[in-house]
Structure prediction request, 65 residues.
Amino acid sequence: MMNIKPIRTEDDYKAAMARISELTSSDPDALLDNEFDELEVLTALAEAYENEYYKNEAPDPVIGH
Prediction:
């Protein structure tokens, strides 16, 4: 049974990533439907958190080499 909640803190994010890792460490074909649904929802929540708090900025180009 899924117990999914919003990812609001770094600890929530780490817990979600740990669960994602658990779900993806086995054969994807062996996932039950509810586990696949859980993986899909957790991945979307983690991606939204990353987009908010881990913004990727382009690095400064190295000049003069």
Q: What stands out?
A: The two ends are 56 Å apart (CA to CA). The chain has a mean pLDDT of 88.
